[in-house]
Write a structure and sequence with these properties.
The complex is a heterodimer of chains A (125) and B (363). With 125 residues, chain A is α+β, with helices and mostly antiparallel strands. Chain A is built from four helices and nine strands. Chain A is globular, with a radius of gyration of 13 Å. Chain B is globular, with a radius of gyration of 20 Å. By secondary structure, chain B is α+β, with helices and mostly antiparallel strands. The chains are: A alpha+beta (125), B alpha+beta (363).
């Protein structure tokens, strides 16, 4: 299970990368492995608001649909539109396949560091 | 508590993700993933453990008469070594189960039923058995492996007398050694690709599994789980009990009239099917035109009016499209009809397409 040290994590298996005053959000290796082959993703549009703890996207694998939750409140500043055409990138490279970038952050939830997240995965695995 | 098939340890060591299904712990997928497993069956070969299926022997001088009364299909002209698909209906014409019947001899038949219906089916058949016929549930001592895909025949030829393999679809060979292991080998399957199903003693299952995987490795054979089994049968437009079929869904609604012989003197459910007449709803194939995946239980609309509900659906890897099956009002079933399916509060454009979604080359 790949858990990069430099990222932060949610209990719902999203990863968060802080870049200046923005954050990038994607789903972890654990999450993509649990979902299986991903075949579709629904993403918000630039300018949409996201709210901490609420779903901003859904990801469909062959098996099931899963909501992706935002760990922050703010405004969608960028969307990785490549994923709309090739959602399988999320399986192949979960930490490269960022979903959205959020700016104007007004609220943020508790995030885990890599060690704490690894422990969580061990408990759920 | 779920039971284990004889291949449980093999599933674990092969990296299978085990889930409860039909009372058993079975792999939904292995390491390769559902798409790779699905593609292996369409292009090369896949091996499935389907030992959870139920096998029931119906034997005796009145075995045939009982089958013809219990089932919607007609077995009168089924020959030794023949296999026939059928429905078993309740008095209202709903489906108790769908199943296949093997004729071992004029007084000996084997009925293969869905795992999740095994207890119900055995009780139903026992309750309706008449005359000189016995019923024996042999599910627990029988293992069933499905070897499916265009290379399945080559793989079997390496392990068994090539001349002895069943040649025609829906036939079987009673006793054939595969890798030295006695099997019933039938040219049947639930994937829409060519292939075989191999019945053997439960205690031989591991040896047969290992022999097949070893012989098939050069041909690209990989183990496949329930996930691929489901996407393959969906792509091939095959019904799954509990989805396209149920106690409240008739075989005629499910588009399975080919297996319902209303001209037989009688069978359980016949009267109800005749009285109900032309079904007012039918099983239809849907292709997702808009963005998204439509799964089961999505309401379907025609110009805003509800016309039915989906029964199965996902992304089908070989066809490469999101597809679904649905039970729809007749008026909404014409091929090309534009409809909408509601998924998580969102309406997605779909259109009716012909079933099956996939047909193997040459058909």
């Amino acid at each position: 299970m790949n858990i990069p040290k430099e990222l932060l994590y949610t209990r719902d298996h999203e990863w968060v990368q802080e870049t200046g005053d923005r954050v990038r959000i994607g789903i972890t290796d654990f999450a993509q492995d649990a979902l299986g082959d991903i075949v579709f993703i629904n993403l918000p549009e630039e300018g949409d608001g996201v709210r901490m703890g609420e779903s901003f996207a859904d990801v469909e694998s062959v098996k099931a649909v899963s909501d992706i939750y935002s760990p922050v409140s703010g405004r969608v500043a960028a969307v990785n539109a490549d994923l709309l055409d090739s959602p399988e990138q999320i399986n192949a490279d979960p930490y490269g396949a960022w979903m959205i970038e959020v700016a104007d952050i007004t609220d943020r939830g508790e995030l885990l560091d890599a060690a704490a997240y690894e422990k969580l995965c061990g408990e759920e695995g | 508590m779920e039971r284990k098939t004889p291949l449980y340890d093999r599933h674990i060591s092969a990296g299978g993700k085990l889930v409860p299904f039909g009372g058993y712990l079975l792999p939904v997928q292995y390491g390769a993933g559902i798409i790779a497993e699905h593609m292996a069956v369409r292009e090369r070969a896949g091996l499935f453990d389907v030992s959870h299926m139920g096998e029931v022997l119906i034997e005796g001088p009145d075995a045939l008469a009982n089958l013809n009364r219990l089932m919607t299909n007609d077995f009168t002209n089924l020959r030794d070594g023949g296999v026939r698909y059928s429905l078993m209906c309740n008095e209202q014409g709903g489906a108790v189960d769908d199943l296949i019947v093997y004729r071992h001899g004029p007084e000996q038949y084997m009925v293969v039923v869905n795992a999740s219906n095994r207890g119900k089916d055995v009780a139903w058949m026992k309750a309706h058995l008449q005359g000189e016929a016995t019923l024996t549930d042999i599910s627990d001592i029988v293992a069933l492996l499905a070897l499916q895909g265009p290379h399945a025949a080559d793989i079997l030829r390496a392990l068994a007398d090539p001349g002895a393999l069943p040649k025609k679809a829906f036939t079987f060979v009673e006793e054939l050694e595969v890798g030295g292991i006695p099997c019933i080998v039938s040219k049947t399957g639930y994937t829409g690709s060519d292939g075989y199903e191999l019945y053997t003693d439960a205690n031989q299952a591991v040896a047969l599994w290992d022999a097949l995987l070893a012989a098939g490795a050069p041909q690209g054979l990989i183990p496949c789980g329930l996930g691929a089994r489901d996407t393959l049968r969906l792509e091939a437009g095959m019904p799954l009990y509990g989805h396209e079929l149920g106690e409240d869904i008739t075989p005629l609604e499910a588009g399975l009239g080919f297996a319902v012989k209303l001209d037989k003197p009688d069978f359980i459910g016949r009267q109800a099917l005749l009285e109900r007449g032309e079904p007012q709803r039918l099983r239809a194939g849907l292709r997702v035109v808009g963005r998204g995946i439509v799964r089961e239980q999505a309401p379907v609309f025609l110009e805003g009016e509800p016309v039915g509900i989906t029964t199965s659906g996902t992304h089908c890897p070989y066809v490469g499209e999101a597809l679904a099956m649905a039970l729809l009002d007749r008026r909404a079933c014409a091929v090309g009809q534009a409809l909408e399916a509601e998924v998580r509060g969102r309406r997605i454009a779909v259109e009716v397409v012909k079933l099956p979604f996939y047909q193997k080359p040459g058909k």
